[in-house]
Amino acid sequence: MSRISFEKGIEKFKTTPLEELQREAAAVRNQKNPKNRVTFVIDSNPNYTNICNADCSFCAFYRHPGAKDAYQKTVDEALKSVERAHQAGCSTVMMQGGLADYPLEFYTELVRQTRLRYPSILPHYFTAPEIWNCAKVNHLSLEEVLQALYDVGQRSLPGGGAELLSERVRLTISPKKMAPGAWIEVHKTAHRVGMRSTATMMYGHIEEAEDILLHLDALRTLQDETGGFTAFIPWSYKPDRTALRRKVKDWVGDVAYLRLIAFSRLYLDNFDHIQASWFSEGVEVGIKALQGGADDFGGIILEENVHRATGFVHRADISHMLRYIRQAGFTPVERNCLYEILKIYDSEEVLVPVAQAVDEENQLAIISRKRS
Ligand code: SF4
Questions:
Q1: What pLDDT does 194 receive?
Q2: pTM metric for this prediction
Q3: 319 occurs within a structural domain
Q4: pLDDT at residue 347, rounded to an integer
Q5: Counted domains in the chain
Q6: Which residues are 334's β-sheet partners?
Q7: Which of 47, 51, 56, 308 should be mutated for ligand 1, with most atoms under 8 A from CB?
Q8: Greatest CA span in the chain, whole angstroms?
Q9: Rounded Cα distance, 302 and 175, in Å
Q10: Which helix (H) or strand (E) holds 233?
Q11: Do the domain assignments include residue 159?
Q12: By C-alpha distance, which of 92, 47, 46 is closest to 70?
């Protein structure tokens, strides 16, 4: 299939019927990935601070310094979440926070101690705005920050903070946050120092089709240059308890998500993995996305506070994950955040709880493992 141009992409995105997009996307997905398999990760998404001064209008998670429920953890306090993830059998922890004033040593120590104490966990830490903020606060270049993190063992950067890589959109929803070009620059630099990274998109607010294409085009162009992205992960905006809600008429719905998954599989012709997020869109829609272009089902996400701040909570353990993936007609395959295969679940297995982890609001999550 030849590459879809920006102009043709806009037309295709707007006019091609969903079933046709999904059929094409499923065919491409099967060329790039084993057609009977779907990957997932056992992970946790804790936070080290909710203090932030960016005032993004779509965010219900942040607090200003001095707010009664603001928190700023030390390295040891943040590592408690990693310890819980370790006990629960996670292979990946995505640690992120607001844009607070921390010295570089906080970030490097968090990574160093994670690698030292929990060698089986890959630190998938700090989104592009946090890296940008760390460089600014500590008067360093992006390369100096990312190289320092690489030197203590970080190999992967999460894609959060991209939202919509369109300056028009940013000026409305998060004018104090880094510009789209700066998000790209952080990821380009991360790839240069030897890290891989994921690419995300938060859509379903004020964007037009052109903004979506601008975003996908920026990702495709950087991927041509570096090949450093592992996967593309879109999710829809969750309006509850956010300031942006006043400007957004309705939640965009399931069809918009399925169109985006299928179209991104076609447009991002240099990406291997497209993630269907059961967590952000619900299991039923996630399963449909697996049948329409996606090859990955995301993580079980032991701990999560950003979506929860909007009142949006989904929970699953490994046994749910295996059931959902099988229900969609695929063999579940466990991976880490570098998309390295850890285990193929190619037979029906008896799963029993081997660890229980209590998150910060004392909600119980049970991680199930095969009886040995
Ligand atoms: S999305 Fe991130 S940068 Fe924006 S206000 Fe929330 S925590 Fe701060």
A1: 98
A2: 0.91
A3: yes
A4: 75
A5: 1
A6: 40, 343
A7: 56
A8: 55
A9: 32
A10: strand 229-236
A11: yes
A12: 47
Scored b (16 or more CB within 10 A) or e, 167-202 reads eebbeebbeebbebeebbbbbebbbebebbbbbbbb
Residue 1 located in a structural domain:
no
Looking up tokens 């992006």, which residue turns up? 142
Is residue 261 within 8 A of residue 234, CB to CB? The reply is yes
Does residue 361 surpass a pLDDT of 60? no
Residue with the smallest CA separation from ligand 1 atom 3 is 54
Residue 107 resides in a domain: yes
Ligand 1 close to Cβ of residue 62 (< 6 A): yes
Coil vs helix vs strand at 229: strand
Range of the domain at 270: 6-370
Q: What CATH code is carried by the domain that includes residue 295? A: 3.20.20.70
Query: How remote is the CA of residue 176 from the centroid of ligand 1, in Å?
Result: 10
Q: Which atom of ligand 1 is nearest to the CA of 55?
A: 5
Task: Report the Cα–Cα distance between both ends of the chain, in Å, rounded.
Answer: 46
pLDDT at 367: 45
| Ligand 1, atom 1, residue with closest C-alpha | 59
Q: 227-282: per-residue pLDDT in tens?
A: 999 999 999 988 777 888 877 766 678 999 999 999 999 999 999 999 998 878 88
The pLDDT score that the predictor gives to residue 277 is 84
- 3-class state of residue 309 by DSSP: helix
61 lines ligand 1 (CB under 6 A): yes
User: Which residue's alpha carbon is at the smallest distance from atom 4 of ligand 1?
Assistant: 56
CB of 243 sitting under 6 A from ligand 1: no
